[in-house]
Amino acid sequence: MIEIKQLTKSFGDRTVLQGIDAVFETGKTNLIIGQSGSGKTVLMNDLVGLLEPTSGQILYDGRDFVTMDKRQRILLRREMGMTFQGSALFDSLNVLENVRFPLDMFSSMSSRERDRRAMECIERVNLKGAETKYPDEISGGMQKRVAIARAIVLNPKYLFCDEPNSGLDPKTSLVIDRLLSDITHDYGITTIINTHDMNSVMGIGEKIIFIYQGHKEWEGTKDQVMDAKNKRLNDFVFASDLFRKVRKAELDEDNNK
Ligand SMILES: Nc1ncnc2c1ncn2[C@@H]1O[C@H](COP(=O)(O)OP(=O)(O)OP(=O)(O)O)[C@@H](O)[C@H]1O
Known about the structure:
Blueprint: E1 2-11, E2 14-24, E3 29-33, H1 40-48, E4 55-60, E5 63-64, H2 70-77, E6 80-83, H3 95-106, H4 111-124, H5 140-152, E7 158-162, H6 170-187, E8 190-195, H7 198-204, E9 207-212, E10 215-220, H8 222-225, H9 231-238, H10 241-255
């Protein structure tokens, strides 16, 4: 479990995150949603230590990341996996080498063991057969899967995914969502996903935190989103034409009963 308490982040005199309290649950897909510019990426970057919060606590199973010394932080970072917006693969490395990279950097495994572990993760994301291909030889969806395999190769307890569906068609997005959800449940990972994809929200949003202009406006589950009474959340959800139509059809159906 990751718990944040009164997390605030300012850049100069501009406050981007304002006193956020939230709990991200173990073994669940926790989604951070919100409009462009609401602060999702800043929040995630604070969580993984790419930014320093201005104030507040970030508790990883009770351990406060903010007050840790450098050595403790390095150790905790080894428990984190991350995928970035865009897949951020190394163009000059093939799929196997990309996935093996964290092991090459951080593990004491033999070369053979590293290959075996990397192949295990490649198989987990259904990319067996693609291990000798280079990123520019595979599709965007396959690149995302390579990024996920690389993010789990060190057996993380915590997985962070910033916009994992960006640039993907709806069908491929579903495949990625399902994969992230299965991995989260199979390995009991605390997974945090930044998204503004409503299909992801309704598909895998076991816990949803809605950020509005830097503060937590609403939290709940995918089953609560459609009926939530929060106007800002509704505006966000139903800004998607498809969801407005789905909701209207549901209401019409109710009225005709
Ligand atoms: N290094 C920085 N210095 C100053 N302002 C920043 C910095 N990083 C982010 N911001 C500002 O913080 C706000 C939140 O940005 P953030 O990238 O977290 O939004 P987001 O919700 O992730 O948006 P998107 O969905 O478009 O990725 C924006 O107004 C952005 O300009």
